[in-house]
């Protein structure tokens, strides 16, 4: 009798072991699913159009801004132009709102998978910057980047159209004619110190660049 009771007692142990194992596996699967959902959310990059009031003239300055929320880092893509020079691409690191001329809140465009960033950078580098021209500027550069995002399927079609629509109110000569007043101030400064200095058409090239 004692041997049978002992065998029964010993036989009950695996049952409890199986129960604890099943509970452990369930908890592990839940934690894995949670971590996967968190990682999928964390892998998204937030895309913005950073819009700045002009240093002079009546065109808003634009930059394409990418924010990685997991690392809290920013990358900005823009073209800049000196007074006597061509347009040339410029890449910045840091929040666009560090500039006092940046409009807030930023113009939101959408979100894309972080794994596509290298592809996007490569395509941005292929954009033909025309140099000196009256028919193309920093706004068109950002529009071309957004077209790449849409054409490559980095965002959905509805998202692409909505992002484009969000930018359009600031496209073109929307800021107002402020050129005359600023030019007068600049001429007075030049006359006072007697030095003729070139003017930078994009303040971001001086203010925000980390290069």
Global mean pLDDT: 75
Tally of separate helices: 6
Strand order of the largest sheet: 4-3-2-1-5
Percentage beta strand: 15-25%
C-alpha geometry: globular
Low-confidence stretches: 1-12, 33-40, 177-211
Distance between the termini: 87 Å
Alpha carbon gyration radius = 28 Å
Helix/strand order, N-terminal first: HEEEEEHHHHH
> How many DSSP E strands?
5
Supply the helix-strand structural class.
alpha+beta
Descriptive overview:
The protein has 211 residues and is an alpha+beta fold. The protein has a domain at 44-172 and 198-207. It has 6 helices and 5 strands, in the order αβββββααααα. It has helices spanning 2-42, 117-125, 138-151, 157-167, 179-193, 204-207; strands at 44-52, 61-68, 73-81, 87-92, 107-113. The chain has a 5-stranded antiparallel beta sheet. A hairpin with a 4-residue loop joins strand 2 (61-68) and strand 3 (73-81). Helix 3 (138-151) packs antiparallel against helix 4 (157-167). The longest helix has 41 residues, at 2-42. It is globular and about 40 Å long. Mean pLDDT is 75; it is low at 1-12, 33-40 and 177-211.
